[in-house]
């Protein structure tokens, strides 16, 4: 992934801004794909849901995973709708509203899937509500730019984590998880606005870099707490019923997530 020049420069013309945004979005999508492990499909990863769900521990782990992801999408919808109030222009407000709508559609897909596999959606989400609510409480943005950084950096860290896990899931669940992780437009929109703000006032960069580092730490801690609190989910991650994971691989997984975060910071023109 190309790393944009971090040195503040004169604002480019509209065509250059569009090209840079498109390139950043494409690179970010490619980066997500590059950081998703692609093990040989064996065991559960080569099965569909009907086959894999015969294992009770795996079934419980998937319900936990979908419950956590569903609540995350619902919380993202609420947060983006709230952040829209901070938008400086009507166009920005509409853009965030569109993103919020996409997050709610992802939530609906997950809720429907939970119901389809005979898991009560609300009960599946409830174990994760307190931890996710606390994360959002501790990382409430104070202004528009911090909200954009959170949408881009914070949500991307969560997406990286779920993509890592998805590589070891049955084919049906894997397709659903990857589908709801599709970029809703956060990447290109956030990069464009944040880089423009830094170009207009380079002093903004230092504050936003500190904010992004805080988000990184909080997001990783929150992900680790969620996994540790759910036996079936932690068993799946460390190799109990899923293919290819062990404790060492979990460490490497978080290293890959950290590396992807560093690249996203560079795309924003910020130091990791």
List strands and helices in order, with pairings.
Elements: H1 14-34, H2 49-52, H3 56-83, H4 90-116, H5 121-138, H6 144-166, H7 171-180, H8 186-200, H9 204-229, H10 231-237, H11 247-268
Helix pairs in contact: 1-8, 3-4, 3-5, 3-6, 3-10, 4-7, 5-9, 6-8, 6-9, 6-11, 9-11
Task: Fill in the keyword field for this structure.
272 residues; mainly alpha; globular; disordered N terminus
Number of helices: 11
Mean pLDDT across residues:
80
- The percentage of residues in β strands lies in under 5%
The shape is globular
Helix content: over 70%
Number of strands: 0
Short description:
74% of the residues lie in helices and 0% in strands. With 272 residues, the chain is an all-alpha fold.
Description:
- There is one protein chain.
- By secondary structure, the protein is an all-alpha fold.
- 74% of the residues lie in helices and 0% in strands.
- The chain contains eleven helices and no strands.
- Helix 3 packs antiparallel against helix 6 and helix 6 runs parallel beside helix 9.
- The radius of gyration is 19 Å and the shape is globular.
- The two termini are 16 Å apart.
- The N terminus is likely disordered.
């Amino acid at each position: 992934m190309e790393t944009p020049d971090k040195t503040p420069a004169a604002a480019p013309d509209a065509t250059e801004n569009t090209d840079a945004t498109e390139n950043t979005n494409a690179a970010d999508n490619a980066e997500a794909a590059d950081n998703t492990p692609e093990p040989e499909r064996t065991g559960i990863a080569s099965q569909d849901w009907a086959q894999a769900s015969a294992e009770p521990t795996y079934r419980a782990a998937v319900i936990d995973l979908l419950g956590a992801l569903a609540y995350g999408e619902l919380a993202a919808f609420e947060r983006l709708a709230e952040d829209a109030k901070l938008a400086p222009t009507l166009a920005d407000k509409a853009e965030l509203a569109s993103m919020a709508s996409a997050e709610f559609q992802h939530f609906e897909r997950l809720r429907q899937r939970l119901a389809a596999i005979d898991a009560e959606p609300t009960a599946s989400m409830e174990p994760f509500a307190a931890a996710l609510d606390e994360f959002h409480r501790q990382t409430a943005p104070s202004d528009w730019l911090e909200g954009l950084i959170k949408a881009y950096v914070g949500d991307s860290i969560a997406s990286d984590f779920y993509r890592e896990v998805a590589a070891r899931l049955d084919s049906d669940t894997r397709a659903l998880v990857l589908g709801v992780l599709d970029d809703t437009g956060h990447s290109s929109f956030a990069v464009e606005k944040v880089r423009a703000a830094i170009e207009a006032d380079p002093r903004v960069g230092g504050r936003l870099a500190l904010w992004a580092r805080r988000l990184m730490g909080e997001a990783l801690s929150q992900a680790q707490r969620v996994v540790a609190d759910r036996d079936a989910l932690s068993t799946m991650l460390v190799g109990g019923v899923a293919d290819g994971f062990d404790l060492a691989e979990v460490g490497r997984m978080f290293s890959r997530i950290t590396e992807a975060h560093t690249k996203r910071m560079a795309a924003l023109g910020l130091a990791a």
